[in-house]
Predict the structure.
Amino acid sequence: MNALESVAAQELNRSIELEVIVVDNDKFASAEAICTRFRAAHPLVRLSYVQELTSGVSYARNRCLREASGKWIAFLDDDEVASPRWLIELHSTASAHHADAVFGPVLAKFCGPTPDWLRASRTHERARFASGTRIGWRDARTGNVLLNRELIKTAGEFDYRFAKTGGEDSFFFACALRSGARLVWCDEAEVHESVPLQRMTKRWLLQRAFYGGSTFTRLNVAIYGRHVYIVWAIHGAGMLLIYAFPALFSFILGRPKWIFYVQKMVGAVGKLIAPFSKFTVYGQK
């Protein structure tokens, strides 16, 4: 509900018409009641609710693309809250820099006390850039983005091979870059993401690092070909060697940053096992 409320509170120019689409990827339609309450509270907001029964983030995002009717399409996750000038800042930057897609910062909002080791891990921190900076696919995500509908014609839809693992957004924008798209950053378009308690544990952080390393390698294979498996396997082995000593040293001395080094090592293991996960290279069957 907070995400929808933040969209309803957007400061928009009169020339901009807002269309809100909620795609519910839950077979139990858990978001339907929320949308009903929102409509009652905001009768002037044009809101559409649809249910996507095929589970997976790629299916949900592609349903968003199919349901949207505007020239510009913005994505906001259900656990995020947008700042009041979120859309206007994204749109202004797109116009000023002739961008095909504009991205903004996602800032973590912890739902509980944050221990030193959690902050030292930097898991919930993401890179930020000066507004107008052109960015690559590694920093391109759908958690906070405004994209031109024309981009779909060149980048295609979100790839279903990443539906269960994530990374579908990075691959989408990598395809867009290949076709000459211009991806730009807008640092003023902030959104805040709630970090629940279950994502504030060492177990969750290390699991994320492992699967993140594997998905990152699979993304590179999908973009550049199978030969990069060797590159990232060597890279993973090197990371294990590089971070082993500082991880042990920090742990013995009781320094909170030990978790940062261990995350790097676990991510490296994920890169090493990536070739053994079932995956199809883009364009092949």
